[in-house]
Amino acid sequence: MTANIRIVLVNTTHPGNIGGVARAMKNMNFTELHLVAPKKFPHAEATARSSGATDLLERAVVHATLEEAIADCQLVVGTSARGRHIPWPVVDPRELAAIVAPALVTEQSEGKKIAIVFGREDRGLTNEELHLCHHHVHIPSNPEFSSLNLAAAVQVLTYELRMAELYSDANAEHKPQWGTDWDIELAESAELERLFEHLEQTLIDIRFLDPDNPRQLMPRLRRLYLRALPDKVEVNVLRGILTATQKRLKEHE
Ligand code: SAH
């Protein structure tokens, strides 16, 4: 069900683009639009460019931070027009649609929440924002001219997701795995963020991480853990190990 997938726009500058995104979404039967600190919203230009998709604009949820917008999602996907310093698992829109297909198939979709995050018109998503994501999606555009208009990028992604939904029966025997073959629910983004904070603090406590010179340690560890798609029990076990480590350390101080 497309209702399981939210489109998150970070810090959009031009309200017209928000309207264009609402239109692109409604064309593909998506309804969940989340806005992180938009520069101007609501705005007449957004309404005009939505060409009648005003219901999506009216129900759009505005958040102060990206963390808040994705807190209850089990899968977070960031979009990027260009390669970044630390490469992350990158898929194209069709591969993404295959990964999230279980959330689109009615019987398997219950409780699944997925965020697809889009960046600012001028500079996309920051590395820190991309590091909140499990996967990165790149639309394989012309490397010499790689950046699509925001609404165009949303159109490509939502089109591929819609195709995956329409073709889901034909693909029944090749059902992808995400979120369907597991006994325990996957951890939500907010739980993973608490784990990363706890991990960072523990690594500082044991003097493995120098807060004055952190280098790329936390992004690399985030990438490692996010690649594993930890479930709720696994996150609790990891937090338990960190708590025990901190406790033993205090006893020996
Ligand atoms: N100059 C920015 C591009 C911003 S385009 C940069 O270098 O990152 C605005 C947004 O549209 C991007 O943040 C991304 O969410 C989406 N987008 C544009 N082109 C894309 C592409 N080829 N693949 C994936 N997302 C893209």
Structural commentary:
This protein is an alpha/beta fold and 253 residues long. It folds into 2 domains: 173 residues, Alpha/beta knot; 63 residues, Orthogonal Bundle (Helicase, Ruva Protein, domain 3). A 7-stranded parallel sheet has the order 3-2-1-6-4-7-5. Helix 1 links the parallel strand 1 and strand 2. The longest helix is centred in the C-terminal third of the chain and has 21 residues. The chain is globular and about 65 Å long. S-adenosyl-L-homocysteine binds next to helix 7.
SSE topology:
Elements: E1 5-10, H1 15-27, E2 32-36, H2 44-49, H3 54-59, E3 61-63, H4 66-70, E4 75-79, E5 90-91, H5 93-104, E6 114-118, H6 127-130, E7 135-137, H7 150-166, H8 189-205, H9 217-227, H10 232-252
Parallel strand pairs: 1-2, 1-6, 2-3, 4-6, 4-7, 5-7
Helix pairs in contact: 1-7, 5-7, 8-10
